[in-house]
Amino acid sequence: MARIISVANQKGGVGKTTTTVNLGACLAYYGKRVLIIDIDAQGNATSGMGIRKSDVSKDIYDVLVNEEPVDNVIHQTTRENLDVVPATIQLAGAEIELTPMMARESRLKTALKDIREEYDYILIDCPPSLGHLTINAFTVSDSILIPVQCEYYALEGLSQLLNTIRLVQKHFNPDLRIEGVLLTMYDARTNLGSEVVEEVRKYFRERVYDTIIPRNVRLSEAPSHGLPIIDYDPRSRGAETYLALAKEVLAHE
Ligand code: ADP
Ligand code: MG
Q1: CATH 1.10.10.10 correct for 3-251
Q2: How does it assemble (predicted)?
Q3: Which ligand 1 atom lies nearest to the CA of residue 11?
Q4: What's the pTM?
């Protein structure tokens, strides 16, 4: 049975998509069968995995809104053991279209029932909001991985996220837990970085991963080549640290 992990933070640009794609690829590198589900209408995980928009006829929108079987929308990537359910801009309408639907918070859960056996990990790349799409992700997930960017106000807005997690635990998914908090875009050249690390560790304690993802230009280049970092530049700091993160996640099992 796949462990399902949502990668979430309603702040944009904190490294959710970068983490989903690269953690997913690194888990696949270690021999796990991985499915990445893109539920952000931006489709950054989709294009970052090398899936071209022109090759996508149906996507996660059709699964959530039109009850398309998820098997029909899975794409394979160039890396073995790594599959993707893509998102395209049509997903932008889903927040509104889901509103009047019955059991709207559990549509993703229902959709994934039949494929949970086929993977070891399912990672969900969440949008920068706490709307119906994110609630769907939390309702089906075992846990949530929270990337936090090493910058001023890093913790700002996290109380809203934690509140949403508590609401989902109360109403839809009592077993939901926090997988871990990941510090991202760390810049060793500034004092700010280490101050933020200390602050986040004080608040989240042992739930913060030992691995810290540095700011690394190769990580920001890789998506435009449609490749995870371990295929784009396996010797980079970015590749090294995402492999280390994957090891930590595997050790949590
Ligand atoms: P989110 O999904 O939370 O919006 P992204 O993963 O898309 O965030 O990251 C935002 C931007 O920062 C992207 O352009 C991405 O390539 C870049 N980026 C993410 N992580 C790093 C990093 N560790 N070093 C350098 N650039 C990064
Ligand atoms: Mg993103």
Answers
A1: no
A2: Dimerizes in the presence of ATP but not ADP; ATP-binding is required for double-stranded (ds)DNA-binding. Interacts with DnaA.
A3: 3
A4: 0.98
